[in-house]
Protein 1
Amino acid sequence: MNEHKVKAVPEGMHTVTPHLTIAGCGEAIAFFREAFGAEELQRMTEPSGTKILHAMVRIGDSTLFVNDEFPEQGGVARPFSPWLYVDDCDRAFARRRCGGRREDAAQ
């Protein structure tokens, strides 16, 4: 009998990890990087390299799983509303604007 125990929650992860299907996932990752300082930890593309099957992105101490939509397989993008806690909201807002968002944008 093998006595080795596997951690229920992998190192660096939390109990709940959002998995988002996003139309234009690569562009979204670039925006997350520019606007929120995200770090892309992993990316797996489909054979042509044009769509993302799975990517892992870290923003602060939180990890997101993201992928492109694949409607032919039932994977379609859906709206989501993330909450982002930051130390300096003015700096985060300025980064968001540099990431291409308008000040009055709801998203």
Protein 2
Amino acid sequence: MKLFARAKPVQAPERRGGPRTRVDCMANLLMPSGDRPGRLFDISASGARLATQVPPAAGCAGILDWSIHEAYCRVTWSKPGMCGIEFDKPLSPEALKETIEKAPAGSRALPAGHANDAGTDSQDRKDGSPPTRLPC
């Protein structure tokens, strides 16, 4: 027996119920303590990640409302700017597919000073307004 032998690292089991897909969609977490508007960052049949200015604490329950869909859920983790959400029941394949198709994440934003193909960067606009986003 080796008293000071290094132990092999144990890999934590995967907690997600399914693969996540990046999306970009307006969403609202409805809770008794107040609504939390934000954007869906990614989604799967079992849960989602919500980017929001004031994320609720882990353990809070509510209804995630996006596009024409909604789901009862619970916040599983929270950190500044975002939180992880687990749905009470898995999303239907139709709702998941529709959300992914109507709200693709697209490419990441370019740093300031770089030109983009469409020329619709907020710096290029005369009124300084952000680019128009289509609702998902």
Protein 3
Amino acid sequence: MEGPHHEHRYVHHRGDRRGESVPRDDQKYSTKSIGKQPIEVRKLPRSAVVDRCHILFVGQSEIALMPEIYRYLAGKSTLIITEYPDALEDGSVANFVRTDNTLKYEMSVVNARKHKLEVALTLKQLALRVEE
């Protein structure tokens, strides 16, 4: 995924049941970078107001915040990742789904474009389902 920003910020909402999918130790990535750009990982309080970030993971326990989050991030270059049924129809760019005891993802190219993001061919090929 590519967007116009120069620093990478990965954020997830607190309170998600499967927070293990996002590292608990934010310091683990404090010395990492993508190219010359540093990575910043932050955990947010329960709120739909999201400071500028590139990737936002919202866990299933925070579904109630999603309509407000979608409105707040409309048109912004943020990859919104979720983990609930029909999330792509709601506006998510990527959504984790469990099939046959395996965690997979589905993607919406349409929603990615709304967020000024491009989906790489490899991501589309590896996805369980892609909405073009």
